[in-house]
Amino acid sequence: MADITESPEWSALAEHQAVLAGRHLRELFADDPGRVGRMTVTAGDLRLDYSKHRVTAETLRLLVALAERAGLRGRIEAMFSGEHINVSEDRAVLHTALRLPPGEALTVDGQDVSADVHAVLDRMAEFAGRVRAGEWTGFTGKSITTVVNIGIGGSDLGPAMAYEALHDYADAGISCRFVSNIDPADIVGKLADLDPERTLFVVASKTFGTLETLTNAKVARRWLVERLGDDKAVSRHFVAVSTNAERVAEFGIDTANMFGFWDWVGGRYSFDGAIGLALMIAIGGEAFREMLAGFREIDEHFRAAPFEANMPVLMGLLGVWYTDFFGAQTRAVLPYSQRLARFPAYLQQLTMESNGKSVRADGAPVVAQTGEIFWGEPGTNGQHAFYQLLHQGTRLVPADFIGFAEPFEEPAVDGTAMHDLLTANLLAQTSALAFGKTAEEIAAEGTPAAVVPHKVMPGNRPTSTILVRKLTPKTLGSLVALYEHVVFVEGTIWGIDSFDQWGVELGKVMAMDLAPALTSDEPPGETPDPSTAALVRAYRELRGR
Ligand code: F6P
Fold first, then answer.
1. Which of 275, 278, 412, 453 could bridge 149 with an S-S bond, Cβ 3.0-4.6 Å?
2. Which residues are catalytic?
3. What is the distance in A from the centroid of ligand 1 to the CA of 156?
4. Tens digit of pLDDT for each residue in 50-97?
5. Is 357 exposed, middle or buried (CB count within 10 Å of its CB: 0-12, 13-18, 19+)?
6. Is the dihedral angle over the CA atoms 343, 322, 434, 446 positive or is it negative?
7. 0.95 exceeded by the pTM?
8. 59 upstream amide cis, omega within 30 of 0
9. Quick check: CB of 511 below 6 Å from ligand 1?
10. Ligand 1: distance of its center to the CA of 473 in Å?
11. pLDDT above 90 (res 14)
12. 210 lines ligand 1 (CB under 6 A)
Protein backbone atom coordinates (compact mmCIF):
# COMPACT_ATOMS: atom_id res chain seq x y z
CA MET A 1 0.00 0.00 0.00
CA ALA A 2 1.48 3.34 -1.07
CA ASP A 3 1.61 6.04 1.56
CA ILE A 4 -0.88 8.74 0.69
CA THR A 5 1.40 11.43 2.10
CA GLU A 6 3.88 10.65 -0.67
CA SER A 7 1.33 11.24 -3.41
CA PRO A 8 1.46 14.32 -5.66
CA GLU A 9 -2.10 15.11 -4.50
CA TRP A 10 -0.94 15.35 -0.88
CA SER A 11 1.98 17.62 -1.85
CA ALA A 12 -0.34 19.81 -3.92
CA LEU A 13 -2.60 20.24 -0.91
CA ALA A 14 0.35 21.11 1.33
CA GLU A 15 1.49 23.78 -1.13
CA HIS A 16 -2.03 25.11 -1.49
CA GLN A 17 -2.44 25.29 2.29
CA ALA A 18 0.69 27.43 2.58
CA VAL A 19 -1.02 30.03 0.38
CA LEU A 20 -4.50 29.72 1.82
CA ALA A 21 -3.36 29.85 5.46
CA GLY A 22 -2.70 33.56 5.04
CA ARG A 23 -6.17 34.32 3.71
CA HIS A 24 -9.16 35.32 5.82
CA LEU A 25 -12.70 34.10 5.32
CA ARG A 26 -13.64 37.76 4.92
CA GLU A 27 -11.53 37.88 1.76
CA LEU A 28 -12.74 34.53 0.50
CA PHE A 29 -16.34 35.73 0.75
CA ALA A 30 -15.54 39.13 -0.78
CA ASP A 31 -13.73 37.50 -3.72
CA ASP A 32 -16.49 35.06 -4.53
CA PRO A 33 -20.11 36.22 -4.43
CA GLY A 34 -21.38 32.81 -5.60
CA ARG A 35 -19.64 31.01 -2.76
CA VAL A 36 -22.62 30.23 -0.55
CA GLY A 37 -24.68 28.83 -3.41
CA ARG A 38 -21.87 26.59 -4.55
CA MET A 39 -20.88 25.53 -1.05
CA THR A 40 -24.30 24.37 0.00
CA VAL A 41 -25.27 20.74 -0.58
CA THR A 42 -28.34 18.75 0.28
CA ALA A 43 -28.63 15.06 1.02
CA GLY A 44 -32.17 13.90 1.69
CA ASP A 45 -33.48 16.07 4.53
CA LEU A 46 -30.05 17.44 5.45
CA ARG A 47 -28.74 20.76 4.19
CA LEU A 48 -25.07 21.56 4.68
CA ASP A 49 -23.59 25.04 4.29
CA TYR A 50 -19.81 24.64 4.26
CA SER A 51 -19.05 28.08 2.85
CA LYS A 52 -17.57 29.17 6.20
CA HIS A 53 -14.64 26.82 5.72
CA ARG A 54 -11.15 27.88 4.83
CA VAL A 55 -11.41 26.48 1.34
CA THR A 56 -11.75 27.69 -2.21
CA ALA A 57 -12.94 25.90 -5.35
CA GLU A 58 -9.29 24.94 -5.86
CA THR A 59 -9.06 23.39 -2.37
CA LEU A 60 -12.08 21.26 -3.11
CA ARG A 61 -10.67 20.17 -6.44
CA LEU A 62 -7.45 19.11 -4.73
CA LEU A 63 -9.26 17.33 -1.89
CA VAL A 64 -11.42 15.43 -4.35
CA ALA A 65 -8.26 14.47 -6.25
CA LEU A 66 -6.86 13.13 -2.97
CA ALA A 67 -10.01 11.06 -2.48
CA GLU A 68 -9.62 9.65 -5.99
CA ARG A 69 -5.97 8.86 -5.27
CA ALA A 70 -7.02 6.99 -2.12
CA GLY A 71 -9.46 4.95 -4.24
CA LEU A 72 -12.46 6.17 -2.27
CA ARG A 73 -15.04 5.24 -4.92
CA GLY A 74 -13.81 1.65 -5.01
CA ARG A 75 -13.64 1.47 -1.22
CA ILE A 76 -17.25 2.63 -0.91
CA GLU A 77 -18.33 -0.11 -3.29
CA ALA A 78 -16.20 -2.64 -1.43
CA MET A 79 -17.96 -1.76 1.82
CA PHE A 80 -21.50 -1.81 0.41
CA SER A 81 -20.94 -5.09 -1.39
CA GLY A 82 -19.61 -6.90 1.67
CA GLU A 83 -15.91 -7.29 0.93
CA HIS A 84 -13.84 -8.04 4.02
CA ILE A 85 -12.56 -4.50 4.45
CA ASN A 86 -12.10 -5.03 8.20
CA VAL A 87 -8.81 -6.72 7.47
CA SER A 88 -7.46 -7.25 10.97
CA GLU A 89 -10.58 -9.24 11.88
CA ASP A 90 -11.20 -10.55 8.34
CA ARG A 91 -14.80 -9.35 8.34
CA ALA A 92 -17.24 -7.63 6.06
CA VAL A 93 -18.46 -4.21 7.23
CA LEU A 94 -22.14 -4.14 6.51
CA HIS A 95 -23.98 -1.81 8.84
CA THR A 96 -25.51 -0.41 5.63
CA ALA A 97 -27.25 -3.79 5.18
CA LEU A 98 -29.18 -3.13 8.42
CA ARG A 99 -31.25 -0.58 6.53
CA LEU A 100 -31.71 -2.21 3.16
CA PRO A 101 -35.33 -2.07 2.00
CA PRO A 102 -37.28 -5.32 2.36
CA GLY A 103 -36.89 -7.48 -0.71
CA GLU A 104 -33.52 -6.04 -1.79
CA ALA A 105 -31.27 -9.08 -1.58
CA LEU A 106 -27.59 -8.85 -0.69
CA THR A 107 -25.61 -12.04 -0.69
CA VAL A 108 -22.36 -11.98 1.23
CA ASP A 109 -20.17 -14.99 1.91
CA GLY A 110 -22.97 -17.16 0.51
CA GLN A 111 -25.65 -15.76 2.81
CA ASP A 112 -28.58 -13.45 1.99
CA VAL A 113 -27.83 -10.94 4.72
CA SER A 114 -30.79 -8.77 3.82
CA ALA A 115 -33.21 -11.64 4.48
CA ASP A 116 -31.50 -12.24 7.84
CA VAL A 117 -31.75 -8.56 8.74
CA HIS A 118 -35.46 -8.40 7.97
CA ALA A 119 -36.20 -11.61 9.83
CA VAL A 120 -34.68 -10.05 12.98
CA LEU A 121 -36.39 -6.70 12.41
CA ASP A 122 -39.74 -8.45 12.04
CA ARG A 123 -39.18 -10.39 15.28
CA MET A 124 -38.15 -7.20 17.06
CA ALA A 125 -41.22 -5.37 15.78
CA GLU A 126 -43.48 -8.23 16.84
CA PHE A 127 -41.96 -8.35 20.32
CA ALA A 128 -41.91 -4.54 20.69
CA GLY A 129 -45.55 -4.45 19.58
CA ARG A 130 -46.54 -6.96 22.26
CA VAL A 131 -44.70 -5.08 24.99
CA ARG A 132 -46.21 -1.78 23.86
CA ALA A 133 -49.70 -3.25 23.74
CA GLY A 134 -49.35 -4.72 27.23
CA GLU A 135 -49.61 -8.25 25.83
CA TRP A 136 -46.12 -9.19 26.94
CA THR A 137 -46.47 -9.09 30.69
CA GLY A 138 -44.11 -9.55 33.59
CA PHE A 139 -44.08 -12.59 35.87
CA THR A 140 -47.03 -11.35 37.93
CA GLY A 141 -49.11 -10.55 34.86
CA LYS A 142 -48.59 -6.80 34.85
CA SER A 143 -47.66 -4.83 31.75
CA ILE A 144 -44.21 -3.33 31.26
CA THR A 145 -43.72 0.38 31.87
CA THR A 146 -39.90 0.66 32.01
CA VAL A 147 -37.25 -0.92 29.84
CA VAL A 148 -33.74 -0.97 31.27
CA ASN A 149 -31.06 -1.44 28.62
CA ILE A 150 -27.89 -2.92 30.09
CA GLY A 151 -24.94 -2.52 27.74
CA ILE A 152 -21.87 -0.40 27.19
CA GLY A 153 -20.08 1.32 24.29
CA GLY A 154 -21.96 0.66 21.11
CA SER A 155 -24.50 -1.39 23.04
CA ASP A 156 -25.42 1.70 25.06
CA LEU A 157 -24.46 4.98 23.42
CA GLY A 158 -26.49 4.50 20.24
CA PRO A 159 -29.83 3.51 21.78
CA ALA A 160 -29.35 5.93 24.70
CA MET A 161 -28.59 8.85 22.38
CA ALA A 162 -31.46 7.98 20.05
CA TYR A 163 -33.96 7.46 22.87
CA GLU A 164 -33.18 10.89 24.26
CA ALA A 165 -33.33 12.42 20.79
CA LEU A 166 -36.68 10.81 19.99
CA HIS A 167 -38.44 10.72 23.34
CA ASP A 168 -41.26 12.85 21.90
CA TYR A 169 -42.08 9.86 19.72
CA ALA A 170 -42.28 7.45 22.67
CA ASP A 171 -46.04 7.02 22.48
CA ALA A 172 -46.80 3.85 24.43
CA GLY A 173 -46.21 5.08 27.96
CA ILE A 174 -43.00 3.05 28.20
CA SER A 175 -39.82 4.79 29.25
CA CYS A 176 -36.24 3.57 28.92
CA ARG A 177 -33.23 3.78 31.17
CA PHE A 178 -29.68 2.91 30.25
CA VAL A 179 -27.19 1.28 32.59
CA SER A 180 -23.62 1.02 31.35
CA ASN A 181 -20.93 1.85 33.90
CA ILE A 182 -19.47 -0.77 36.22
CA ASP A 183 -19.60 1.92 38.89
CA PRO A 184 -22.38 0.56 41.15
CA ALA A 185 -23.79 4.08 41.38
CA ASP A 186 -25.17 3.62 37.88
CA ILE A 187 -27.28 0.52 38.34
CA VAL A 188 -28.17 1.17 41.99
CA GLY A 189 -29.40 4.66 41.13
CA LYS A 190 -31.34 3.54 38.06
CA LEU A 191 -33.11 0.64 39.81
CA ALA A 192 -33.89 2.49 43.04
CA ASP A 193 -37.42 3.65 42.21
CA LEU A 194 -38.41 0.93 39.73
CA ASP A 195 -41.28 -1.49 40.09
CA PRO A 196 -39.80 -4.95 39.39
CA GLU A 197 -43.19 -6.28 38.27
CA ARG A 198 -43.26 -3.75 35.43
CA THR A 199 -39.57 -3.69 34.43
CA LEU A 200 -38.05 -5.38 31.41
CA PHE A 201 -34.27 -5.72 31.10
CA VAL A 202 -32.64 -5.78 27.68
CA VAL A 203 -29.12 -7.15 28.09
CA ALA A 204 -27.33 -5.83 25.03
CA SER A 205 -23.87 -7.08 24.19
CA LYS A 206 -22.46 -8.09 20.85
CA THR A 207 -20.02 -10.52 22.43
CA PHE A 208 -21.93 -11.22 25.64
CA GLY A 209 -18.53 -11.29 27.28
CA THR A 210 -18.21 -7.69 28.43
CA LEU A 211 -17.42 -7.40 32.13
CA GLU A 212 -19.48 -4.27 32.77
CA THR A 213 -22.59 -5.61 31.08
CA LEU A 214 -22.48 -9.08 32.58
CA THR A 215 -21.82 -7.68 36.06
CA ASN A 216 -24.70 -5.20 35.81
CA ALA A 217 -26.97 -7.90 34.38
CA LYS A 218 -26.18 -10.18 37.34
CA VAL A 219 -26.98 -7.37 39.77
CA ALA A 220 -30.26 -6.73 37.93
CA ARG A 221 -31.19 -10.41 37.96
CA ARG A 222 -30.55 -10.66 41.70
CA TRP A 223 -32.60 -7.46 42.27
CA LEU A 224 -35.50 -8.92 40.32
CA VAL A 225 -35.45 -12.41 41.83
CA GLU A 226 -35.15 -11.07 45.38
CA ARG A 227 -38.20 -8.90 44.85
CA LEU A 228 -40.38 -11.31 42.89
CA GLY A 229 -39.26 -14.29 44.96
CA ASP A 230 -38.85 -16.75 42.09
CA ASP A 231 -36.07 -17.62 39.63
CA LYS A 232 -38.71 -18.31 37.01
CA ALA A 233 -39.42 -14.57 36.84
CA VAL A 234 -36.19 -14.10 34.86
CA SER A 235 -37.61 -15.38 31.59
CA ARG A 236 -40.42 -12.78 31.63
CA HIS A 237 -38.17 -9.87 32.56
CA PHE A 238 -34.92 -10.49 30.68
CA VAL A 239 -34.28 -10.52 26.96
CA ALA A 240 -30.91 -10.42 25.22
CA VAL A 241 -29.43 -8.81 22.15
CA SER A 242 -26.24 -10.47 21.00
CA THR A 243 -24.32 -12.33 18.33
CA ASN A 244 -23.47 -15.07 20.82
CA ALA A 245 -26.38 -17.42 21.57
CA GLU A 246 -24.23 -19.82 23.58
CA ARG A 247 -23.20 -17.19 26.12
CA VAL A 248 -26.75 -15.83 26.32
CA ALA A 249 -27.97 -19.32 27.25
CA GLU A 250 -25.12 -19.77 29.73
CA PHE A 251 -26.19 -16.54 31.42
CA GLY A 252 -29.68 -17.98 31.86
CA ILE A 253 -31.65 -16.04 29.27
CA ASP A 254 -33.90 -18.16 27.07
CA THR A 255 -32.53 -17.86 23.51
CA ALA A 256 -36.14 -17.72 22.32
CA ASN A 257 -35.99 -14.22 23.83
CA MET A 258 -32.76 -13.30 22.09
CA PHE A 259 -32.45 -10.95 19.13
CA GLY A 260 -29.39 -11.58 17.04
CA PHE A 261 -27.01 -9.74 14.83
CA TRP A 262 -23.80 -10.60 13.07
CA ASP A 263 -20.06 -10.10 13.26
CA TRP A 264 -20.23 -7.82 10.21
CA VAL A 265 -21.96 -5.15 12.30
CA GLY A 266 -19.50 -3.21 14.46
CA GLY A 267 -20.75 -2.40 17.95
CA ARG A 268 -20.59 1.35 17.31
CA TYR A 269 -22.58 0.90 14.09
CA SER A 270 -25.31 -1.28 15.54
CA PHE A 271 -28.23 0.62 17.04
CA ASP A 272 -30.18 0.55 13.77
CA GLY A 273 -30.36 -3.23 14.23
CA ALA A 274 -31.21 -5.38 17.24
CA ILE A 275 -29.17 -3.18 19.60
CA GLY A 276 -31.96 -0.64 19.06
CA LEU A 277 -34.54 -2.94 20.68
CA ALA A 278 -35.17 -0.70 23.72
CA LEU A 279 -35.58 2.27 21.40
CA MET A 280 -38.00 0.32 19.22
CA ILE A 281 -40.09 -0.64 22.24
CA ALA A 282 -40.32 3.06 23.16
CA ILE A 283 -41.08 4.53 19.73
CA GLY A 284 -42.62 1.54 17.95
CA GLY A 285 -41.69 -0.50 14.88
CA GLU A 286 -43.06 2.01 12.41
CA ALA A 287 -41.04 4.96 13.73
CA PHE A 288 -37.98 2.67 13.89
CA ARG A 289 -38.43 1.84 10.20
CA GLU A 290 -38.72 5.55 9.42
CA MET A 291 -35.37 5.97 11.14
CA LEU A 292 -33.94 3.23 8.91
CA ALA A 293 -35.28 5.05 5.86
CA GLY A 294 -33.34 8.13 6.99
CA PHE A 295 -30.16 6.10 7.26
CA ARG A 296 -30.82 4.58 3.83
CA GLU A 297 -31.35 7.94 2.17
CA ILE A 298 -27.83 9.00 3.15
CA ASP A 299 -26.38 5.59 2.23
CA GLU A 300 -27.77 6.01 -1.27
CA HIS A 301 -26.53 9.57 -1.50
CA PHE A 302 -23.06 8.52 -0.31
CA ARG A 303 -22.90 5.72 -2.84
CA ALA A 304 -24.18 7.71 -5.83
CA ALA A 305 -23.49 11.44 -5.51
CA PRO A 306 -20.41 12.87 -7.22
CA PHE A 307 -17.76 13.67 -4.64
CA GLU A 308 -18.15 17.42 -5.26
CA ALA A 309 -21.78 17.22 -4.07
CA ASN A 310 -21.44 14.33 -1.66
CA MET A 311 -22.08 15.47 1.90
CA PRO A 312 -20.19 12.75 3.82
CA VAL A 313 -17.31 12.94 1.34
CA LEU A 314 -17.04 16.72 1.67
CA MET A 315 -17.24 16.63 5.46
CA GLY A 316 -14.70 13.82 5.65
CA LEU A 317 -12.30 15.63 3.34
CA LEU A 318 -12.67 18.81 5.38
CA GLY A 319 -11.78 16.76 8.46
CA VAL A 320 -8.60 15.58 6.72
CA TRP A 321 -7.87 19.13 5.52
CA TYR A 322 -7.82 20.56 9.04
CA THR A 323 -6.26 17.53 10.74
CA ASP A 324 -3.39 17.03 8.36
CA PHE A 325 -2.81 20.39 6.74
CA PHE A 326 -3.75 22.87 9.48
CA GLY A 327 -2.71 20.73 12.47
CA ALA A 328 -6.15 20.86 14.10
CA GLN A 329 -6.50 18.35 16.90
CA THR A 330 -10.20 18.37 17.58
CA ARG A 331 -13.61 18.91 16.06
CA ALA A 332 -16.47 20.35 18.08
CA VAL A 333 -19.98 19.08 17.40
CA LEU A 334 -22.53 21.58 18.60
CA PRO A 335 -26.15 20.53 18.25
CA TYR A 336 -28.60 23.36 18.87
CA SER A 337 -31.06 20.87 20.27
CA GLN A 338 -31.29 19.77 23.87
CA ARG A 339 -32.59 16.45 22.61
CA LEU A 340 -29.21 15.80 20.97
CA ALA A 341 -27.35 16.26 24.25
CA ARG A 342 -25.83 12.77 23.94
CA PHE A 343 -24.98 13.10 20.25
CA PRO A 344 -21.39 14.27 20.85
CA ALA A 345 -20.78 11.37 23.27
CA TYR A 346 -22.22 8.96 20.71
CA LEU A 347 -19.98 10.44 18.02
CA GLN A 348 -16.96 10.09 20.25
CA GLN A 349 -17.19 6.32 20.13
CA LEU A 350 -18.22 6.24 16.49
CA THR A 351 -15.35 8.39 15.32
CA MET A 352 -12.57 7.86 17.84
CA GLU A 353 -12.88 4.11 18.27
CA SER A 354 -12.98 3.88 14.49
CA ASN A 355 -10.19 6.22 13.48
CA GLY A 356 -7.93 6.41 16.54
CA LYS A 357 -5.29 4.26 14.83
CA SER A 358 -1.57 4.63 14.30
CA VAL A 359 -0.98 1.80 11.88
CA ARG A 360 -2.41 1.46 8.42
CA ALA A 361 -4.56 -1.46 7.36
CA ASP A 362 -1.42 -3.19 6.05
CA GLY A 363 0.32 -2.86 9.44
CA ALA A 364 2.74 -0.11 8.44
CA PRO A 365 2.86 2.94 10.70
CA VAL A 366 0.81 5.90 9.56
CA VAL A 367 2.70 9.04 8.66
CA ALA A 368 -0.13 11.57 8.79
CA GLN A 369 -2.20 12.45 11.83
CA THR A 370 -5.37 10.38 12.14
CA GLY A 371 -8.45 10.40 14.35
CA GLU A 372 -10.03 13.74 15.07
CA ILE A 373 -10.96 14.24 18.72
CA PHE A 374 -14.71 14.82 18.74
CA TRP A 375 -16.32 16.69 21.58
CA GLY A 376 -19.19 19.06 22.22
CA GLU A 377 -22.26 20.12 24.12
CA PRO A 378 -25.62 21.35 23.01
CA GLY A 379 -25.93 25.05 22.23
CA THR A 380 -26.46 27.41 23.93
CA ASN A 381 -24.90 25.84 27.03
CA GLY A 382 -21.54 25.52 25.33
CA GLN A 383 -21.55 29.23 24.52
CA HIS A 384 -21.35 30.03 28.21
CA ALA A 385 -18.65 27.47 28.85
CA PHE A 386 -16.01 26.86 26.19
CA TYR A 387 -16.84 29.08 23.19
CA GLN A 388 -14.43 31.71 24.52
CA LEU A 389 -11.60 29.40 23.41
CA LEU A 390 -13.26 28.79 20.06
CA HIS A 391 -13.47 32.54 19.40
CA GLN A 392 -10.25 33.91 20.83
CA GLY A 393 -8.04 30.97 21.81
CA THR A 394 -4.83 30.02 20.02
CA ARG A 395 -6.10 26.70 18.72
CA LEU A 396 -7.99 26.03 15.55
CA VAL A 397 -11.16 24.10 16.37
CA PRO A 398 -13.34 23.39 13.35
CA ALA A 399 -16.94 22.94 14.45
CA ASP A 400 -20.13 21.37 13.16
CA PHE A 401 -23.25 23.31 14.10
CA ILE A 402 -26.51 21.36 13.82
CA GLY A 403 -29.86 23.16 13.91
CA PHE A 404 -33.52 22.44 13.34
CA ALA A 405 -36.20 24.78 12.01
CA GLU A 406 -39.22 23.26 13.71
CA PRO A 407 -39.38 22.98 17.47
CA PHE A 408 -41.36 20.57 19.61
CA GLU A 409 -42.36 23.32 21.99
CA GLU A 410 -43.44 26.84 21.09
CA PRO A 411 -43.23 29.04 24.18
CA ALA A 412 -42.57 32.67 23.38
CA VAL A 413 -41.21 35.36 25.64
CA ASP A 414 -41.77 39.06 24.93
CA GLY A 415 -43.17 38.15 21.54
CA THR A 416 -40.20 36.02 20.42
CA ALA A 417 -40.39 32.26 20.15
CA MET A 418 -37.72 30.63 22.30
CA HIS A 419 -36.79 28.38 19.40
CA ASP A 420 -36.05 31.42 17.23
CA LEU A 421 -33.75 32.72 19.97
CA LEU A 422 -31.99 29.36 19.96
CA THR A 423 -31.49 29.49 16.20
CA ALA A 424 -30.42 33.14 16.30
CA ASN A 425 -27.66 32.05 18.65
CA LEU A 426 -26.51 29.31 16.31
CA LEU A 427 -26.36 31.69 13.35
CA ALA A 428 -24.68 34.44 15.36
CA GLN A 429 -21.97 32.07 16.55
CA THR A 430 -21.05 30.76 13.11
CA SER A 431 -20.98 34.28 11.73
CA ALA A 432 -18.84 35.64 14.58
CA LEU A 433 -16.48 32.68 14.30
CA ALA A 434 -16.03 33.23 10.58
CA PHE A 435 -15.88 37.00 10.31
CA GLY A 436 -14.90 38.17 13.80
CA LYS A 437 -14.56 41.84 14.62
CA THR A 438 -11.53 43.97 13.83
CA ALA A 439 -9.61 46.35 16.10
CA GLU A 440 -10.84 49.25 13.97
CA GLU A 441 -14.46 48.24 14.40
CA ILE A 442 -13.99 47.90 18.14
CA ALA A 443 -12.14 51.22 18.50
CA ALA A 444 -14.86 52.94 16.47
CA GLU A 445 -17.34 51.93 19.19
CA GLY A 446 -15.39 54.10 21.67
CA THR A 447 -13.57 51.23 23.38
CA PRO A 448 -10.51 52.45 25.35
CA ALA A 449 -7.30 51.70 23.43
CA ALA A 450 -5.95 49.42 26.20
CA VAL A 451 -9.04 47.21 25.99
CA VAL A 452 -9.23 47.01 22.21
CA PRO A 453 -6.82 44.04 21.81
CA HIS A 454 -8.80 42.05 24.36
CA LYS A 455 -11.99 42.53 22.42
CA VAL A 456 -10.66 41.75 18.96
CA MET A 457 -12.42 38.75 17.49
CA PRO A 458 -9.99 37.23 14.99
CA GLY A 459 -12.58 35.23 13.05
CA ASN A 460 -11.40 32.87 10.30
CA ARG A 461 -12.62 29.97 12.45
CA PRO A 462 -14.20 27.33 10.23
CA THR A 463 -17.65 25.86 10.73
CA SER A 464 -20.17 23.65 8.98
CA THR A 465 -23.85 24.39 9.46
CA ILE A 466 -26.23 21.48 9.08
CA LEU A 467 -29.82 22.64 8.95
CA VAL A 468 -32.76 20.26 9.12
CA ARG A 469 -36.50 20.95 9.21
CA LYS A 470 -37.22 18.87 12.29
CA LEU A 471 -35.66 16.22 14.49
CA THR A 472 -37.61 13.09 13.57
CA PRO A 473 -36.75 9.38 13.52
CA LYS A 474 -35.93 9.78 9.84
CA THR A 475 -33.69 12.83 10.17
CA LEU A 476 -31.91 11.32 13.17
CA GLY A 477 -31.14 8.25 11.04
CA SER A 478 -29.78 10.52 8.32
CA LEU A 479 -27.56 12.44 10.73
CA VAL A 480 -26.07 9.26 12.13
CA ALA A 481 -25.47 7.77 8.68
CA LEU A 482 -23.81 11.04 7.66
CA TYR A 483 -21.21 10.76 10.41
CA GLU A 484 -20.74 7.01 9.88
CA HIS A 485 -19.71 7.78 6.32
CA VAL A 486 -17.57 10.78 7.33
CA VAL A 487 -15.59 8.31 9.46
CA PHE A 488 -15.29 6.01 6.46
CA VAL A 489 -14.03 8.75 4.17
CA GLU A 490 -11.37 9.85 6.65
CA GLY A 491 -10.32 6.27 7.40
CA THR A 492 -9.98 5.59 3.67
CA ILE A 493 -7.74 8.61 3.11
CA TRP A 494 -5.59 7.61 6.07
CA GLY A 495 -5.48 4.00 4.85
CA ILE A 496 -6.47 2.59 8.24
CA ASP A 497 -8.89 -0.13 9.33
CA SER A 498 -11.73 1.91 10.83
CA PHE A 499 -13.60 -1.18 11.99
CA ASP A 500 -11.43 -2.87 14.60
CA GLN A 501 -10.62 -1.61 18.11
CA TRP A 502 -7.64 -3.56 19.41
CA GLY A 503 -6.54 -0.63 21.54
CA VAL A 504 -9.25 -1.25 24.12
CA GLU A 505 -8.26 -4.86 24.81
CA LEU A 506 -5.10 -4.55 26.89
CA GLY A 507 -6.74 -2.44 29.59
CA LYS A 508 -9.58 -4.97 29.90
CA VAL A 509 -7.15 -7.85 30.47
CA MET A 510 -5.08 -5.87 32.94
CA ALA A 511 -8.17 -4.85 34.95
CA MET A 512 -9.08 -8.52 35.34
CA ASP A 513 -5.53 -9.28 36.49
CA LEU A 514 -5.56 -6.41 38.97
CA ALA A 515 -9.00 -7.04 40.49
CA PRO A 516 -7.83 -9.85 42.83
CA ALA A 517 -5.02 -7.64 44.20
CA LEU A 518 -7.60 -5.01 45.16
CA THR A 519 -10.13 -7.30 46.74
CA SER A 520 -8.17 -9.96 48.62
CA ASP A 521 -6.69 -9.72 52.12
CA GLU A 522 -3.48 -11.31 50.86
CA PRO A 523 -0.42 -9.11 50.22
CA PRO A 524 -0.69 -7.66 46.71
CA GLY A 525 0.89 -10.08 44.28
CA GLU A 526 2.56 -9.12 41.07
CA THR A 527 1.46 -5.76 39.73
CA PRO A 528 2.47 -4.39 36.37
CA ASP A 529 4.70 -1.49 37.45
CA PRO A 530 5.93 0.28 40.64
CA SER A 531 3.51 3.20 40.36
CA THR A 532 0.51 0.87 39.99
CA ALA A 533 1.80 -1.31 42.84
CA ALA A 534 1.94 1.75 45.12
CA LEU A 535 -1.56 2.76 44.09
CA VAL A 536 -2.85 -0.75 44.83
CA ARG A 537 -1.35 -0.53 48.33
CA ALA A 538 -2.80 2.96 48.86
CA TYR A 539 -6.23 1.87 47.68
CA ARG A 540 -6.23 -1.15 50.00
CA GLU A 541 -5.17 1.01 52.91
CA LEU A 542 -7.99 3.47 52.22
CA ARG A 543 -10.40 0.53 51.96
CA GLY A 544 -9.10 -0.82 55.29
CA ARG A 545 -7.70 -4.00 53.74
O1 F6P B 1 -14.39 -2.23 24.52
C2 F6P B 1 -14.88 -1.69 23.36
C3 F6P B 1 -16.07 -2.45 22.85
O4 F6P B 1 -15.66 -3.65 22.31
C5 F6P B 1 -16.85 -1.61 21.86
O6 F6P B 1 -16.35 -1.70 20.58
C7 F6P B 1 -18.21 -2.18 22.02
O8 F6P B 1 -19.20 -1.33 21.48
C9 F6P B 1 -18.28 -2.31 23.52
O10 F6P B 1 -16.99 -2.73 23.90
C11 F6P B 1 -19.30 -3.28 24.04
O12 F6P B 1 -19.10 -4.56 23.54
P13 F6P B 1 -20.24 -5.64 23.59
O14 F6P B 1 -21.40 -5.14 22.82
O15 F6P B 1 -19.64 -6.87 23.02
O16 F6P B 1 -20.61 -5.83 25.04
1. 278
2. 353, 384, 508
3. 9
4. 999 999 999 999 999 999 999 999 999 999 999 999 999 999 999 999
5. buried
6. positive
7. yes
8. no
9. no
10. 25
11. yes
12. yes
